[in-house]
Design goal:
By secondary structure, the chain is an alpha/beta fold. Helices cover 38% and strands 23% of the residues. It contains 15 helices and 18 strands. The chain has helices at residues 24-40, 60-72, 90-100, 126-140, 157-176, 198-203, 213-222, 228-240, 248-267, 280-284, 290-298, 309-322, 364-370, 430-439, 454-464, and strands at 9-15, 42-45, 77-84, 106-110, 145-146, 180-184, 207-211, 272-275, 303-305, 326-335, 338-346, 359-361, 378-382, 386-396, 401-412, 421-426, 445-449, 468-471.
Length: 472
């Protein structure tokens, strides 16, 4: 089930209340929340003021009413925001979440007190109440997230950031629990590094749909340049990138393959693909699939080469966190003597967002062994300076777990004279990161995204998915 990053996220809202605190605090809270939600583009499901006292939750009966409301909207709710305008009722919040049985991320917010208004009429004590609510959720085994500040008003800029980050966390969690990945072809014989466990992935809600590459190529070979779908895909490819010196017959080949890949994705409702490339496609079909993969990734349907299923899963996770395309890259080269810079590289399948100077070309490294004329379809382009989130999800089959690492850095405009898709990355303490990757058996493929979303990914994967995550 694909999760669209452009769609507004619906949150269930629990407003905690305690009867010996002023009711006006709950009423003010509702108005504050509506303003914060409008600013963040969030749709809220919360009790009406007529159903319980001001729509708050305190007693077990009120918790049941809120839980019933949440269950009625379970297909919409991607996360729950717990708001404490006063101390709140710790059991009421916990019981609501228990009986709602949503199993979605939960964010706990508590209001700050005014130092000059600690009288009975305005006292909140939410600083203390938040600790009690979290203690109860911990006892109930309910996972939850915290705001940056222990107490924060909904109008505070930091809460706006917290809310946006939480929404992104909800997208990542829902997406990862329902993603469908197409594994097209067999893992290339020379790439043991991209082995993975389908069973471990499936236990985490991640489905893999396999197909033999011969079926894909067989369907492509039955198409002709005169077929309308081929004409349409050819027009789309030419609109997507300058084709350089690519011969017309090669463009038709690329378009035919593109038609079949798109049909396969639609038939199986796939969110992402991992495709056998090196070197079966070139030897048995005569072109690269890079352009098609780039178009898919640009359209938020990430695609990785070498049948790197957990690589494309990593692309999908980062895409959900940021709302922008991801790219699969190699940790490829040192950058001169700079110990905190390196070269990121791949033959040419990065999303167009990373390649302002995009142009269709060939894959020179592959061409040295199988003939450059069989590698048309690779893209050439340099990624300019931008923010960087990098990371990788992997199955550790020996331990029976999913593990990951994430981090942030920057892509730079440093000089880089080479071919293919290429970028220069600057990452603090890069040498330590490389040691971690090598000592923990991670792949040479990593994923990059032009964002700062490592914290969101860590929260989603470690706290809610239960995976082992290293945040560099």
């Amino acid at each position: 089930m694909s999760v669209k990053t452009s769609e507004p996220v619906t949150l269930g809202v629990i407003i905690g209340n305690r009867d010996f605190f002023p009711d006006r605090l709950v009423a003010e809270c509702r108005a504050d929340l509506l303003e914060a939600f409008q600013k963040a583009g969030v749709k809220a499901i919360m009790l009406d003021e007529s159903v319980t006292k001001l729509g708050g939750v305190e007693t077990f009966q009120e918790a049941q009413k809120c839980a019933d409301l949440f269950r009625n909207h379970a297909s919409e709710i991607m996360g729950v925001l717990v708001v404490l305008p006063n101390f709140g009722d710790e059991k009421g919040v916990a019981e609501t979440l228990k009986w709602a049985r949503l199993d979605v991320p939960v964010l706990i917010q508590a209001y700050p007190d005014d130092l000059n208004r600690l009288d009975v009429a305005r006292r909140r004590d939410a600083w203390c109440g938040k600790i009690s609510v979290c203690n109860n959720l911990y006892q109930f085994g309910i996972k939850y997230s915290l705001t940056t500040k222990h107490v924060v008003h909904p109008s505070d800029p930091s809460f706006h950031s917290d809310l946006l980050n939480f929404v992104a966390t909800c997208r990542v969690v829902k997406g990862l629990r329902n993603v469908r990945i197409g594994a097209i072809g067999a893992r290339p014989g020379g790439f043991n590094t991209v082995r993975y466990s389908e069973k471990i992935l499936q236990r985490n809600g991640i489905s893999v749909v396999t197909v033999d590459l011969s079926q894909i190529l067989g369907h492509a070979n039955k198409l002709t340049a005169a077929d309308q779908p081929v004409k349409e895909r050819l027009d789309a490819i030419k609109a997507y990138t300058p084709t350089g010196r690519t011969p017309d017959d090669k463009l038709v080949q690329i378009a035919k393959l593109d038609v079949v890949l798109n049909n396969f994705m639609a038939e199986h409702s796939l969110d992402a693909t991992a495709i056998q490339c090196w070197t079966s496609l070139q030897q048995n079909y005569g072109c690269n699939v890079c352009t098609s993969m780039s178009i898919m990734s640009e359209n938020m349907l990430p695609s990785a080469c070498e049948v790197d299923v957990t690589g494309t899963l990593s692309m999908y996770a980062m895409q959900l966190a940021s709302g922008s395309p991801s790219a699969l890259v190699d940790w490829n080269n040192n950058y001169a003597d700079d110990e905190n810079k390196c070269v990121l590289f791949h033959c040419g399948n990065w999303a167009k967002s990373f390649l302002p100077d995009i142009q269709m070309s060939t894959a020179p490294i592959l061409g040295t062994t199988i003939g450059e004329e069989n590698t048309y379809g690779a893209l050439d382009g340099r990624t300019p300076a931008s923010p960087l989130t990098f990371g990788r999800i992997s199955t550790d089959d020996t331990k029976g777990v999913i593990k990951a690492y994430v981090g942030e850095g920057a892509l730079t405009d440093d000089a880089l004279n080479t071919f293919g898709n290429r970028a220069v990355a600057q990452i603090d303490n890069l040498q330590s990161l490389m040691k971690y990757i090598c000592r923990n058996g991670f792949e040479h493929h990593v994923v990059m995204n032009a964002s700062k979303t490592a914290g969101i990914l860590t929260e989603a994967m470690e706290n809610y998915m239960g995976w082992e995550v290293y945040n560099h």
